[in-house]
Amino acid sequence: xxxxxxxxxIGLGYLGKIHLKLLFENTDWRLVGVYDIDQxxxxxxxxxxxxKSFNSLYEAIESSDxxxxxxxxxxxxxxxxQAVIAGKHVFIEKPFTTTLKEAxxxxxxxxxxxxxxxxxHVERFNPAFISAQPYFNDPRFIEVHRxxxxxxxxxxxxxxxxxxxxxxxxxxxIVPHNIKKINAVGAKLVSHxxxxxxxxxxxxxxxxxxxxxxxxxxxxxxxxxxFNKDNFLSINLLDKVTEAVKIQxxxxxxxxxxxxxxxxxxxxxxxxxxxIILPTNAIKEELLAFYNSINSDRKSIISAVDAIKSLExxxxxxxxxxx
Length: 323
Prior knowledge:
This protein is an alpha/beta fold. The protein has 2 domains: 6-121 and 283-303, Rossmann fold (3-Layer(aba) Sandwich), CATH 3.40.50; 124-277, Dihydrodipicolinate Reductase, domain 2. The protein contains 9 helices and 15 strands. It has helices spanning 14-25, 39-49, 57-62, 76-85, 100-113, 127-132, 159-174, 282-296, 304-322, and strands spanning 6-10, 30-35, 52-53, 66-69, 89-93, 117-120, 141-147, 179-187, 196-203, 208-214, 221-227, 231-236, 241-249, 257-259, 268-273. Helix 4 (76-85) packs parallel to helix 5 (100-113) and helix 7 (159-174) packs across helix 9 (304-322). The termini are far apart.
């Protein structure tokens, strides 16, 4: 496939402005212009970055090889559908769509058009999560807390699609087994849908995950803890810190922490490790991955199929809350 690097940015809200700065600075992409329904904002930012201000979504799609969709969740399907039908590659922020029906229809359109679509599950590119990859080994128990101070920006959808979807995606990426059972509870505080949710997900291999999402918290927390077959991981996605704890039979003259396990039982040593975490920008890295997928005919790191799997889990969690 010939290199296609003309990209148009759709949506100039809080996250859209971050994408705009990164696309402007990235030499791989050629940012051909921006579009937002707020035309005053669109023109203001286009002048600041010296890029074209599109008058319509149609014009933005026609002028590019790929579009970056950073708009409210309920607009994702329609914007992406128009771009895919026009044969354009699409990067789309999460949630992929707000319903499974829309997601599956969009997936079929992507397959038919033979274009690349990547969904913005940005935590996959979090350097703390990446540093933990070598330690994942048959996870047995996973505990996740994602807490956020109130921000009306994401309340057009439930906290499951707003926050918990990040952790559902991470969970499915490290536990490659079918889900056996889901239990969930939730509460509405200020929104029309749940603002606080806790769910328990049991996998067929015996792994259990306990996820909590709260967008009415006093402080921001993004912690992902994984108990593997032979180690324990604490991943702080917010502060970009990963700690690994290994417990094994104590070696002779070990200088590590030693645990007495009882009579006729071997002593154990506790090894603390702190993986190197590279100072990378997760959004920059996911946009680069999208670019590489387009120009190497590789499958997207987070494709429509991956996003649908996460949406299926999210939808079942929401059904459990309703019931």
